[in-house]
Amino acid sequence: MARVENKIALVVGGAKGIGLAIAERLSSEGATVFLTGRRADEVEAAARELGGDARGLVADAGAPEDLSRVVATVREARGRLDLLVLNAGLSEPAAIADQTLEHFDRHFAVNVRGMVFGLQAALPAMSDGASVVLMGSIADAMGIPPYSTYAATKASVRSYARSWAAELAPRGIRVNVVAPGPTDTDMMAAVSEESRAALIAPIPMGRMARPDEVASATLFLLSDEASFITGAELCVDGGMRQV
């Protein structure tokens, strides 16, 4: 039996990269998938790739009104939401001497505000016993210059997961974090070989994660196989932060 059969899933930030891999895996395991992205062409292409009942919705993850509209669409179409993945994220370097208000605000708008108000918008539609996965990063507990603001946003993700797990437990809603290390997405294709080698060097397994490996961890936490796991962080990092 498929692990999330007959579940209604929403993947915020699901049009490409890790998010698309998660959407594909949920669809293959029996879920009806709604996904969002900022660019209409990417969203439409992702929904076509999934096929079946999958539906793509254009939305800015940093705009609470967009997320409210998305949840209303899911609720109107399917009546409820069982699985929520808040994956949208932004990561740009800036040393403290070069930090700007715009850089700071942009990261917290997408990585934190979007997540907070995305969950808030989704809650009225979520079934009791639903499952939430927040996309974190192993950067949440590491010093990674010049990505201090990005790392701070991911530390916020980890902290919120703990509090929300406790707050939503009476409804049986589980909240967990998947924390990838360097992952070989399309975005990494533009990275120089020297930069790739520097990213891989601290990873005991000697390579980056594949998006489908992050998707597998996400599927596990969303499924009933993780029915007694909440408030946890699952690192998908080849041992980079563990060893």
UniProtKB/TrEMBL annotation:
<feature type="domain" description="Ketoreductase">
    <location>
        <begin position="7"/>
        <end position="181"/>
    </location>
</feature>
<comment type="similarity">
    <text>Belongs to the short-chain dehydrogenases/reductases (SDR) family.</text>
</comment>
<dbReference type="InterPro" id="IPR020904">
    <property type="entry name" value="Sc_DH/Rdtase_CS"/>
</dbReference>
<keyword id="KW-0560">Oxidoreductase</keyword>
<dbReference type="InterPro" id="IPR051122">
    <property type="entry name" value="SDR_DHRS6-like"/>
</dbReference>
<dbReference type="Pfam" id="PF13561">
    <property type="entry name" value="adh_short_C2"/>
</dbReference>
<dbReference type="InterPro" id="IPR002347">
    <property type="entry name" value="SDR_fam"/>
</dbReference>
<dbReference type="InterPro" id="IPR057326">
    <property type="entry name" value="KR_dom"/>
</dbReference>
<dbReference type="InterPro" id="IPR036291">
    <property type="entry name" value="NAD(P)-bd_dom_sf"/>
</dbReference>
<protein>
    <submittedName>
        <fullName>3-oxoacyl-ACP reductase</fullName>
    </submittedName>
</protein>
<dbReference type="GO" id="GO:0016491">
    <property type="term" value="F:oxidoreductase activity"/>
</dbReference>
